[in-house]
Amino acid sequence: MKKQSQVVLLEYESKLKSIKEECDSVLSKSKDDALAIKNAMIEEAKKEVCSIKESMKLEIKAAQEECAENIKKSIVDVSIQIGQKFLGEEIKKEQKKFFDSELESLRLIDLK
User: Fold this and answer.
1) Separation CA 76–CA 83 (nearest Å)
2) Residue 112 above 70 pLDDT?
């Protein structure tokens, strides 16, 4: 019976060792799979970040171009307003000179 017990004990120890090896193998494979999934997720995130970055660069460039165009339009508008005001003042000065001259002419005529 002692011999039979030893045989059964050896069988159980062998099975236990086999189960432990299988558990270690499953655990190792699970770790490898998890690492592969993690790396794939990191690569996907990097690609998405690059895509977003490129999209933002295009949006920024478009906004800069729009801003530059708005500034150009504003400069043109202000230049036109300044020109109109300046010309308006020049015309007023010229008109005043003209009226003064005409009035003077009329005075000279009245004096004769």
Assistant:
1) 10
2) no
